[in-house]
Amino acid sequence: MKIFAYGIRDDEKPSLEDWKSAHPNIEVGYTQELLTAETATLAKGSVSAVVYQQLDYTREALTALAEVGVTNLSLRNVGTDNIDFEAAKEFNFNISNVPVYSPNAIAEHSMIQLSRLLRRTKALDAKIAKHDLRWAPTIGREMRMQTVGVIGTGNIGRVAIKILQGFGAKVVAYDKFPNAEIAEQGLYVDSLDELYAQADAVSLYVPGVPENHHMIDAAAISKMKDGVVIMNASRGNLMDIDAIIDGLNSGKISDFGMDVYEEEVGLFNEDWSGKDFPDAKIADLISRENVLVTPHTAFYTTKAVLEMVHQSMDAAVAFANGETPAIAVKY
Ligand code: COI
């Protein structure tokens, strides 16, 4: 049995090699190239393809893959928003993702960034770098004094809540699909409007599905407290970034943290040293002392990368054996 993996980065190779040693009877081929209509032929002779990319899994790419006889597709990440599911259905693709590779990776990062925003570390670091060791005016706010609105209480949101509770923050939560453990703690409010009205800081943990597109727009921001802090490590399309920039300009939003950006493909995980950013909005946001931008690195820990590779490879084998892995995507 042969499995072919696309888009393998150097930092994934140790985890892949590790998996290969534990499965000596399975042949594994891989490439750094992403899955496209042109590269689909590389998987010829394999039973499953293992993939990760932010580039769309287009009808053309899926058709080309099906044409070389591969209709098992195991994603190494959680998000499935870039798959043409209509085309996948036509060719009867079996698809899996890795919904739980390490919720802590993303939850921790988002809470570190929220803490940094509250303690104004970007401004403080800039002062220190200029040899200015005075305290004022970079006075911070304490987490335990904040009411934090957590939108989305899936695996990642729930870890974020635990971290917030460790800090002593008051948590209010909202989810269309409430979680029993969070309900038991009495953390849910009935609507997003209620969460916006109560929260000093808002952090999001929901998928980038069409119904969540630009959920944080001018109307939502207008319902938030003056001086609200917003943190988004989920999906870029949750934010209407123009409304965020307007909110920062007016002071309605005091601080903003983003690990994801709607226009991040081709921008994040690229080296722009010595060059201007090709995107004026990101250049503007990065230049602000009250904005923290990270290039979709919340997930990027050794544990998460290992789980992404190992779980997707296991699922690829399961599909090839005619089984349905627990992480198969229902669509
Ligand atoms: C996902 O798993 O969908 C992510 O957002 C992380 C990705 C950049 C690997």
UniProtKB/TrEMBL annotation:
Query: Could you tell me which Pfam families the record lists for this protein?
Result: 2-Hacid_dh, 2-Hacid_dh_C
Record domain D-isomer specific 2-hydroxyacid dehydrogenase catalytic: where: 8-329
Listed Gene3D superfamilies: NAD(P)-binding Rossmann-like Domain
Quote the EC number: 1.1.1.28
| InterPro entries according to UniProt | D-isomer_2_OHA_DH_cat_dom, D-isomer_DH_CS, D-isomer_DH_CS1, D-isomer_DH_NAD-bd, D-LDH-like, NAD(P)-bd_dom_sf
Record carries keyword NAD: yes
Q: Which UniProt keywords apply?
A: NAD, Oxidoreductase
Q: Domain of life, per the record? A: Bacteria
* Domain annotation D-isomer specific 2-hydroxyacid dehydrogenase NAD-binding: ranges: 114-298
Specify the enzyme's EC class, one word: oxidoreductase
Look up keyword Nucleotide-binding and say if it applies: no
In its UniProt record, a GO molecular function of this protein is: NAD binding
**What PANTHER family would the database entry show?**
2-HYDROXYACID DEHYDROGENASE HOMOLOG 1-RELATED (PTHR43026)
Instruction: Tell me which family the UniProt entry assigns to this protein.
Output: Belongs to the D-isomer specific 2-hydroxyacid dehydrogenase family.
Spell out the protein name for this chain: D-2-hydroxyacid dehydrogenase
Q: Give the source species.
A: Leuconostoc gasicomitatum
